[in-house]
Amino acid sequence: MKAAVMEAVRQPLVVRDVAQPTVAPHGALIRVAANGVCRSDWHVWAGDWTWFGMRPPLPHVLGHELCGVIEEVGSEVKRIRRGERVIVPFSQGEGTCEWCRSGHPNICDTPLTPGFAYWGGFGRYVAVPYADVNLVTLPESIDFVDAASMGCRFMTSFHGVVDRAQVQAGEWVAVHGCGGVGLSAVQIATALGANVIAVDVGAEKLEFARRLGAVATIDARTEKPVKAIRELTKGGAHVSIDALGVAETCRNSVGCLRKRGRHLQVGMTSAAEKGEIALPIDLIVLKEISVLGTSGMQAPRFDAMLRMVQAGRLTPGKLVTRRIGLAEVSDVLTAMDQYGTIGVTVIDNYE
Questions:
Q1: What's the pLDDT tens digit per position in 47-87?
Q2: Is CATH 3.30.1330.60 correct for 166-293?
Q3: What's the whole-number average pLDDT of the chain?
Q4: Domain spans in the chain, listed from the N-terminal domain onward
Q5: DSSP string covering 290-349
C-alpha cells in the first residue's frame, strides 16, 4: 500500500509502498477514504512530545483523523461488518479496564491512538484493534471528507464543550486559539446558543471564526485578551477554552473568567512547557473557578454529534479548507511550525 512515511524527526515524509497491515482477531482493516492532518501529528513529527515518552519507532506512519470502509474483520468481531462506512475515533480503548467498563474508553489505561500507538491514516490501509469497541458507523448522508474533520479536533471539542464544560445557551464562551480544535469549539458552542468570543493572533483565523458564529473576535497582538473579554462580557466569560496549550493562552483563559467560571483545557503543551504551566491558584480559589481537562470522546457519544450533523445544526465540513494527496502532507506539517495553516486540511487522494 502507499503511505507517507516518517523516517526521521523533522524530515520530509517519504511516499512509498509499505506492507499492508494484518488484522488481529479482535480488529478490522479499514481502507482509508480520508484523513485529517492535525497539530498532534506535528507534535510527533517535530519530536515535540518526547518529554513524556511519545517516540514511535521509526519508520512510522502518522495519521489519527481517519474514516473509510471496512475491508476485513477479525474472527472475534461481532458488531462491525465488512463493507460498512466508519469513523475511527482517535481516543480508543481495549474494552476491559476500569475506565472502559465505566463508559470512558477515551481515558483507557492502554491508550490505542492510531498514528501513535500503531500505523495510521497517512497510509491507504489501517488495522484498528478492538473494532467492536473503537469504531463508529458513519451514516451514508455524511461525506468522508466531512467525517475526517470529526475524528480528532471536532469530536474533542464536542466532548469538551458539551460533556465537560456543559455550555448552556446564553453563556459567554471565550476560545483562545483558532486552529482546528478552537474553530470546532466556536461552531459547537454557537450551535448550543452560546455567545462566543474568539481569540487569536491571525486576522484570517479570526475572520474564519466569525463565519462560524463568533459574535466577537480579539486580536491578541493588539489587545489584551483578559481585559477585552471582561469588558465585552461585563464581568468575564462563563466558560473559557484554551485550545492551544501554551502558557499565555492557558493563563489568559483562566484570567478572563467570571466568578464560578469554568476553564476547559483542550490544547496539549509543547516542549517549551513540558506539561507545566503556572496558574493563579489564589484567584481560582477565591472565584471558585473550575478547571476541567478533556481528552477525545468515547465512541458511543458519536451518535449525539452525528445526529446534530445530520440535522444541519453542526457543519464540520465548513472547517475543511484544503484537500491534498499524500505527497503534500510534509508541506502541511512544516507550515504548522509557524501556525501557518487555517482550518482543517484533509488527505483524500491516496494514489
A1: 888 777 778 899 999 999 999 999 999 999 999 999 999 99
A2: no
A3: 95
A4: 2-152+297-349, 166-293
A5: EEEE--S--GGGHHHHHHHHHTTS--GGGGEEEEEEGGGHHHHHHHGGGT---SEEEEEE
Alpha-carbon span 257 to 174, nearest angstrom: 9
Query: Is pLDDT above 90 for 193?
Result: yes
| DSSP H or E segment with residue 211 | helix 203-211
DSSP 269: P
What is the per-residue DSSP string for 150-178?
A: IIIIIHHHHIIIIIIS---TT-EEEEE--
Distance CA 195, CA 216 (A): 8
Smallest Cα–Cα separation from 86: which of 152, 127, 32, 40?
32
Fold of the domain built from segment(s) 2-152+297-349: Quinone Oxidoreductase; Chain A, domain 1 (3.90.180)
pLDDT, tens digit, 9 for 90 and up, residues 231-285: 999 999 999 999 999 999 999 999 999 999 999 999 998 878 888 999 999 999 9
Q: Give the C-alpha separation, 133 to 322, whole Å.
A: 31
d(CA 268, CA 107): 15
CA angle (232 as vertex; 253, 259 as ends), nearest 5? 50
Percent of the chain with pLDDT over 90: 90
What are the C-alpha distances in Å from 268 to residues 6, 39, 242, 290, 307?
22, 10, 9, 18, 28
Q: List the grid coordinates of 101.
A: 467498563
Residue located via cell numbers 497491515: 21
Show Cβ contacts of residue 209 under 8 Å, excluding neighbours closer than 6 positions: 175, 178, 182, 183, 186, 196, 198, 200, 217
